[in-house]
């Protein structure tokens, strides 16, 4: 039986969105910047959002897994970059540099790669509001029964049996055409 989750439940007010807010088709991803599977899906998601930005809405939700040392620091870094208008650029940089994650990466290279204002970033990364946002996403994901990343909901329906990024692309393209 297919369970459809209400759009309001899946998309928090402060969630990062790209695309058409009024489109019938929407994709919500719960993701972890240190998860290799999430990185494998990232180019497909980026391609879909570029190709169909007028025809669907993509929403990113944080779901940092406990087994990854830098999952939360990466999420905090992305949110600090978001405060300088660079969330989506941060997503690309984080997934591309997953193998380089270290304390030094987040305190130096990340800032340089995104050309962030260093003092602003250093202040923002420790902002309790950022931590609260990540914890809220995590908690909402847990309430939805998430067990792994990436987890995708297409038009409120949990996508299962995705054998890879191509399956995701096909599912989204089918939803857009309906």
UniProtKB/TrEMBL annotation:
Task: Name a Pfam family for this protein.
Answer: Thioredoxin_4
GO MF terms, alphabetically ordered: oxidoreductase activity
Source organism's superkingdom?
A: Bacteria
| InterPro entries in UniProt | Thioredoxin-like_fold, Thioredoxin-like_sf
Annotated Thioredoxin-like fold domain residues: 15-173
What are the entry keywords? Answer: Disulfide bond, Oxidoreductase, Redox-active center, Signal
Task: State the similarity comment.
Answer: Belongs to the thioredoxin family. DsbA subfamily.
Alphabetized PANTHER family for the sequence: DISULFIDE BOND FORMATION PROTEIN D, GLUTATHIONE S-TRANSFERASE KAPPA
Q: What is this protein called?
A: Thioredoxin-like fold domain-containing protein
Q: What organism does the record attribute this protein to?
A: candidate division Kazan bacterium RIFCSPLOWO2_01_FULL_48_13
């Amino acid at each position: 039986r297919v369970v459809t989750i209400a759009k309001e439940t899946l998309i928090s007010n402060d969630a990062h969105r790209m695309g058409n807010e009024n489109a019938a088709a929407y994709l919500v991803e719960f993701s972890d910047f240190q998860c290799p599977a999430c990185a494998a899906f990232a180019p497909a998601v980026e391609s879909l959002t570029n190709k169909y930005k007028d025809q669907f809405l993509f929403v990113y939700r944080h779901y940092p897994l406990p087994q990854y040392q830098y999952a939360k620091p990466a999420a905090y870094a992305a949110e600090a970059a978001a405060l300088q208008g660079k969330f989506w650029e941060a997503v690309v940089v984080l997934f591309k540099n997953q193998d380089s994650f270290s304390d030094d990466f987040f305190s130096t290279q990340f800032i340089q790669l995104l050309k962030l204002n260093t003092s602003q970033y250093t202040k923002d990364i420790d902002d309790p509001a950022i931590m609260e946002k990540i914890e809220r996403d995590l908690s909402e994901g847990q309430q939805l029964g998430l067990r792994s990343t990436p987890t995708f909901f297409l038009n409120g329906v949990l996508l299962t049996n995705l054998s890879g990024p191509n399956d995701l692309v096909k599912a989204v393209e089918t939803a857009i055409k309906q």
